[in-house]
Amino acid sequence: MRFLSSRYLVFCLVLLINLSCKKRSADIAPEEGLIVYNINYLEESVGNYSSGILPHKMESRFKEGMVKNSIEGALGFFSLVNISNLDEMTNTTLLKFIDKKYVYRGKKKEPPCCFTGFDGMEIEFTDSTKKIIDYTCNEAIVSFPGTDRKSFAIYYTTEINFDEPNAVSPYKEIPGILMEFTATLGGTSVIMVAEKYLRGNIPDKEFILPRNYMEINKNELEDIMNALLD
Which of 11, 61, 136, 195 is the most buried (most CB within 10 A)? Predict the structure, then answer.
C-alpha cells in the first residue's frame, strides 16, 4: 500500500509540474512592434494617377489585442488608417485628404473598409516556406473556385508571438503574421511585402482615435476612396 501511495504521489507531482509548465508557456506575453511593408501595385496606373506617385509603404503596429495599419502619401496630405480591436472584433477606418477628415466605425466582425478581401476565396495551406526579413514564412494558396480569377500565394510567419493577428481581417484563417499578401486598396489590387520588423514597445496612444474626424457610413467612405483614385 505504501508503494502504491508513493507511486500515486509521484504521479500527481509530475502531472502538476507538467500543467504548471504549460500554463507558464501560454502566459508568455505577446510581442509588440512595427512592420513596414512595401506596397506593390499590379497596374502601372490607378485611375488618373501613375502608380509611381501613389503611397508605397504601409506601417503595421501591433500590441496585445490591437493592430493599426497606416498608409500615408502625397507629402502627408493623404492618409488611410485602419485600427483593429481584436478583443471587440471591430475595425475603425480613418481617412484624411488635405483638410478633410473622415472616420468609419465598422460593425462587429465586419472586414476592414478599404483593405477588403476577396469574395468566395478559399485558402489551402502548403508545405512550402521562404525567408522574408530573416523569418521563416509558410505558404498558403488563395483561389476562387468557379471563377476565372487567378490564384495567388501569401506568406505568413508564426515566429513572431502574437495571437490571432488576422481575427478581423479577410485572412482570418491565417494563424500568423502576414509577411507577403495581396489586398484590395480602394478597388485596386496591391501586394504587400514586409521589408522591416522593429520589435519594441508601442504606446497605447497609437490606438486612440483622434478628434475632429467626421463620422460617415461605409458607402460614403468607399465612394470617397473611389473618387480619390478615379
Answer: 61
Q: Are 4 and 12 in contact (CB under 8 A)?
A: no
Partnered with residue 95 across adjacent β-strands are: 80, 102
Residues facing 8 on adjacent strands? none
What percent of the chain clears pLDDT 90, i.e. is strictly above it?
55
* pLDDT tens-digit series, residues 115-161: 665 778 899 999 999 999 999 999 999 999 998 889 999 999 999 99
Q: Alpha-carbon distance 68 to 79, whole Å? A: 13
For position 182, what pLDDT does the model report? 92
DSSP-assigned states of every residue in 126-176: EEEEEEETTEEEEEEEEE-TTS-PPPEEEEEESSS--S-TTTTSTTTT--S
Residue 187: other Cβ atoms inside 10 A: 14
Closest-CA residue to 87 (of 69, 108, 110): 108
The rounded distance, in Å, linking the Cα atoms of 52 and 74 is: 11
Residue type, 217: N
Residue 184 is placed in which grid cell? 484590395
Considering only CA atoms, give the Rg of the chain. 22
Q: For residue 53, give the 3-state DSSP assignment.
A: helix
Tell me the average pLDDT across 158-181.
93
Measured in residues, the chain has a length of 230
Q: CA-CA distance, 74 to 54, in Å (whole number)?
A: 7
